[in-house]
Amino acid sequence: MLNRKILILLSISLLLTVLVSFSTKLTSKCNFNAEDCIKKNEEEAFKKAYFPFEFKNYATVHLLKHFKQGTVVDSIVFEAKAYEGEIAHKIFNYRLNDSYISFLVKGESDYFYLVKAELKEDLFQPKNGCKIGIKANSFHKMIKSDLKNCNPFYLSEGDFETIYQFKFNKGRLQSININTSPDYENFDNNIEGKINYNKTDDDILSQYVRYTKELYIEAENISNLSDAAIDSMMHEQNGIYIKVHPETVTYSPDSVLKFFTFTEEGCGAYCNDDQTTWIHYRINTNSLVIKRVGIGHPKNIYKIEKGKYLLLGESSGRPASVLTVYCNGAYILDINDKTIKIEDVFSFCQENGVFLDHEEEPYIKYNEKENKLYYLFGNNYAYSQGVNVDTIRKGSFNYEKGKFHHVSEFITVKKYEDE
């Protein structure tokens, strides 16, 4: 079982909390259930052989010289000023057509870090010749692997277990995906057999918590370990405080959907948590559809028409020592074709220190009679951009023909004098 290294995840996930308000989403991934098709390197041998540059002294103008003509650095998705000991972080995306690679840069570090990549074509000239289109036999010979029948094939490297996923088509390398944290899409598909769904709802939630805990540790006969032993090993093996605990089981108004929610909490200099929800949709006695979503705490669930539900979620986080955020999101769940599809409607995060009119709290609310979604929130840019300005946004969406349509937004700007 792969060990989840929370140290790098904390650094990245704290940045992503703030980015929700800018509708920028990154998802880092790897695969849990590929033990028979994974080669593990303690050292970063493939990384050193594959990339034509060193991961130090980041400068876009110099790094871009290694990439194909036409590659663009299309976003700097986070930039925070150094403040009271905080280190500025940036994530750069290098993109060409449908392929991209992302790097994390820390302001006071000589090194930068690989975050995620999806390569369907070569963005640069690989030093070791591992090009898209290389024959599978030549690939396995190059990396000294005997797992020639694996498709996809996985390579795990380094202390933070960067995962390289190699997919093949007709005997040739089709794509390379590089990730630094768990791939819950594959995790979803392989959880069957791990959870006994014939138990009570509370017991099912406890099983989800237990299974998630096991992902954090490496041990023989994990299933025989007590919860207390696993909790102790989670701390010992990861070096920081980690806790996984159940939250609630929530139901749709017609009881067709069940929502099993639990929290993963990690504490370094300060603590942050992340909620995971497993949605259950029972088609009949013998058929159950499940889907994992990250929407914070499920707050309200509405049935808006046959096969469609509106889900409102909320969460909070502390991306910096002087900064906390409160987040709301609205999502449509569609179960019309005996699957569960989720669509983001609208989401935001509001920083602490933003003052709304009449001392209101930020919100997303749904009016069932009007079929309208209303929102109110504000953002301040003193920490992220060095500009002490609040922007207060109040607006609404109408629901028509299976979609929410944005129909209005009023923006109030409040500028404060620097002290």
Question: Could you describe the 3D structure shown?
Answer:
By secondary structure, the protein is an alpha+beta fold. Helices cover 16% and strands 44% of the residues. It is built from eight helices and 20 strands. The strands form four sheets. It has an eight-stranded mixed beta sheet with strand order 1-6-7-8-5-4-3-2. Strands 9-10-11-12 form a four-stranded antiparallel beta sheet. A four-stranded antiparallel beta sheet has the order 13-14-15-16.
Shape: globular
Task: Name the assembly state.
Answer: single chain
Radius of gyration, in angstroms, nearest whole number = 23 Å
Overall pLDDT score: 79
Main sheet characteristics: 8 strands, mixed
- Helix/sheet category: alpha+beta
The tally of helices reads 8
What is the first-to-last residue Cα distance? Answer: 53 Å
**Widest sheet: strand order?**
1-6-7-8-5-4-3-2
Task: Detail the poorly predicted runs.
Answer: 1-34, 76-88, 182-190
* Sequence of secondary-structure elements: HEHHEEEEHEEEHHHEEEEEEEEEEHEE
Strand % is: 35-45%
Helical fraction: 10-25%
Number of strand elements: 20
Question: How is the topology of this model organized?
Answer:
Layout: H1 6-19, E1 38-41, H2 45-50, H3 60-63, E2 72-76, E3 89-96, E4 99-106, E5 112-119, H4 136-142, E6 153-157, E7 162-169, E8 172-179, H5 184-189, H6 201-214, H7 227-238, E9 241-251, E10 257-267, E11 271-284, E12 287-293, E13 297-305, E14 308-320, E15 323-334, E16 341-351, E17 363-367, E18 372-381, H8 382-385, E19 387-400, E20 403-415
Parallel strand pairs: 1-6
Antiparallel strand pairs: 2-3, 3-4, 4-5, 5-8, 6-7, 7-8, 9-10, 10-11, 11-12, 13-14, 14-15, 15-16, 17-18, 18-19, 19-20
